[in-house]
Amino acid sequence: MTYPKVGLITFGDERAHEWAKVFKNLTEPRHRQAIDYFKSLPIELCADENVARTKQDIDGQVDRLRAAGVESFIAHVPCWTAPNLVVRGVQRMNLPTALVSNASPATHGTVGLLGAAGALAQIGYPHLRVRQDFESGKVGEKTLPMFRAASAVKRLRGEVFGLFGGRSLGIDTGTFDPMQWREQFGVDVEHIDQLEIIRRAEKMTEDQSAEMMAWLTQNVKSIGYNDQGLTPAKLSFQVRCYLATKQIIEEKGLDFGAIKCMPDLTNNYVPQCISAAFMPSPYDASGTKPVFSFACEADGDGALTMEILKLVSGGMPPFFGDLSYLNEGTHTLYLPNCGAVCSWYAGRSNDPVENLKNIELRPAMRPGGGSITYFKAAPGAMTLARLYRKGGAYTMAIIPGQAVEPTQEEYAAFVAARGVHQLPTAFVKVNADFDDIIQEFGSNHISGVGGAYVDELIHVCELLNIEAVVLD
Fold it and tell me: What is d(CA 400, CA 453) in angstroms, rounded to the nearest whole number?
């Protein structure tokens, strides 16, 4: 897990006589308490040991925090302080900001909080206001989503997206404007021909795929070899495509990506399902590795949504699939994908063996042969989301839910309805109105991540000037 990097300054009264007589003994213990409290949260806190009371104090502390690379800012106002000094610090820091004070009747903290907050509102500076005692535990509940969102937005800027191939199967919602991404998200786009994967894979020997072939053979539930589409040679080539993709990602310094795959590679070579299953996973045959958000069918906005979900969750593996079927009877979304889903969701375990034992490698039904990864996603909390555009402006749909295990009868009915086209699927129970989803949702694809991150995504949308639509 990665943690947001947060800076804290406690602001004190600059008047020497008031500080000595009243506020020193109220502010300094609360400054120490604030440091201890925020250090107990899943963040990386940077703070000075001293309270900032003067312009010089404030400027010095801000400059040190900026040099440390903090991604968001806590303006701690435990007592009365001059609002203009807080505004000075906030403007100089120029980061997403939480104004934090306490509920004590002894501190004049509410006066200090509202004085500073009102001044920030007058200049149009967005901020979060928190008036809670640390003992309540609610300070973290209110601030953590903002910290995570600010960190995600900051870390997204400067990332490079790798697009392998072009539009797949006429899916317009997977296309995007690279320069809009540059402007709004700070993301660069690197275009790569997907045949570069094939070229590299063909140059590799089967020995180079031996480690991962052995790892899959030993750990997956089954491999459905036959004499036609799925042979050891085809699976080995899929593994080499995965290794070739890893090479390209490393050489070009890519941070997340998407691949066209269909129909070119599925018809004439092999589907890239091994890549789609293990790029977003935190492991492969070589051991622990970085999570790499990777969408199918060249879906740029889907991959960008995955990357945001990964970042707000501290590096959790993201999910990508089709919004395929809405079961009105159980209020469950059925989310299959064309041949692969991030393997972590097969068991939600940090031990890859626990996940792989639930995965079947089945023959792909496409002309090129090869395998698909088949499983039901394990139960657990899910946050589903999707970036899409209306008239060129981005919206994000956000749907909280719970991945569930369907009953035997429900699953048998789904399998029977799908016929030969069986795919890995997540079954996610939601509280959203299905008609609202149909009327609003702007894509056939949906992304997700394990856990509850609705508030974080709302903050991300605020920071990026995106409309957030929570379907719940």
Answer: 8
Q: Are residues 292 and 326 in the same domain?
A: yes
- CATH number of the domain bearing residue 117: 3.40.50.10940
Q: Are 353 and 218 in contact (CB under 8 A)?
A: no
**In this structure, are 217 and 249 located in the same domain?**
yes
The DSSP secondary-structure symbol of 448 reads E
Position 251, amino acid: E
Q: Give tens-digit pLDDT for 95-109.
A: 999 999 999 999 999
Helices marked H in 387-453: 408-418, 434-440
On whether both 111 and 192 belong to a single domain, the answer is: no
Angstrom distances, CA of residue 53 to CA of 57, 60, 98, 125: 6, 11, 19, 22
Contact assessment for residue 418 and residue 280, using Cβ atoms and an 8 Å cutoff: no
Residue 276's pLDDT is what? 98
- If one counts every other C-beta atom within 10 angstroms of the C-beta of residue 407, the result is 10
Check residue 227 and give its pLDDT. Answer: 82
Beta strands in 142-296 (DSSP E): 160-164, 188-192, 222-223, 256-259, 283-284, 287-288, 294-295
CA 71 to each of CA 6, 51, 152, 157: distance values in angstroms, whole numbers, following the listed order: 6, 21, 9, 12
Domain co-membership, 173 together with 99: no
- State how many domains the chain has: 2
Residues 286 and 407: beta-carbon distance below 8 Å: no
How far apart (Å, rounded) are the C-alpha atoms in residues 177 and 171?
Answer: 15
Q: Are residues 133 and 186 in the same domain?
A: no
Q: How far apart are the C-alpha atoms of 322 and 336, rounded to whole Å? A: 6
CA distance 87 to 70: 18
Range of the domain at 85: 5-155
pLDDT in tens, 36-64: 999 999 999 999 999 999 999 999 999 99
384 and 249 in a single domain? The answer is yes
Tens-digit pLDDT profile for residues 313-334: 999 999 999 999 999 999 999 9
CA atoms within 13 A of residue 95's CA, in its CB half-sphere: 30
Phi and psi, residue 135, nearest 5°:
-60, -25
- The proportion of the chain whose per-residue pLDDT surpasses 90, expressed as a percent, equals 97
Q: Is 31 helix (H, G, I), strand (E, B) or coil?
A: helix
Q: What CATH number corresponds to the domain at position 450?
A: 3.20.14.10
Dist CA 370 CA 363 (whole Å): 6
Query: How many CA within 13 A on the CB side of residue 209?
Result: 24
